[in-house]
Amino acid sequence: MSNVTVLTGNIFRSNAQTCVNTINCVGVMGAGIAFEYRLRYPEMFKQYRALCEQGQIDIGKLWIYKSPDRWVLNFPTKRHWRQSSEEGFLHAGLEKFMNTYQARGITSVAFPLLGAQMGGITAERSLEIMFEHLGQCAIPVEIYRYRSDAPDDLYEEFKGRFLQLSAQQIKANSGLGAQAAQAIRNALVDECTCQLNQLLQHKGVGEKTLERAYCFAMQNRNGGEPVVPPQGSLL
Prior knowledge:
Blueprint: E1 4-9, E2 18-23, H1 32-40, H2 42-53, E3 63-66, E4 71-76, H3 87-100, E5 109-112, H4 123-134, E6 141-146, H5 153-164, H6 167-173, H7 178-188, H8 207-218, E7 231-234
Parallel strand pairs: 1-6, 2-4, 2-5, 5-6
Antiparallel strand pairs: 3-4, 3-7
């Protein structure tokens, strides 16, 4: 009997011990689910870029980042962010996962549809490949079909914190200019926006602007990034 469950929604709402982040091999997390992981785990992003510079990230190699709230399994589905995913990349990474997950102590895992949202592989084909490998997995596996209107608890927290800040507080302490801060505010009050990565679709909101705003608004929250350096290991 298969332990795989297919869900529709937001992978960040999963209770799985380990969640999968789809990455490229050149150190860029600039959109989609990868950008959300970049905001949530800035130390992980820093380590990821260093590993890419050292040539340690490649197709078929998986990297686990362990933080107190969850483990993140970084799974390369592209060589370069400008390029498409290939079915062979998915096979290579899933074979590595199946051969190593028990030894690495992974007890439950949540995957997005690999290579599907921004990689060019159809959702149906991605799901076929994933079931081919994960169907025999001995631990609970969730596969998330992305839903753009799925709620995101961390987005709501960021929204509440940022909108409570005065223009004077932001100007004095965040490093954001007035126009950038207003662009963030405009994006946050748009009722169609409900996830962190969707803020990048708004005029005047770029990666660096959003990253700076997020770090400033969330800097004093409890939990999140650990104070002590987390552990990471390559598979």
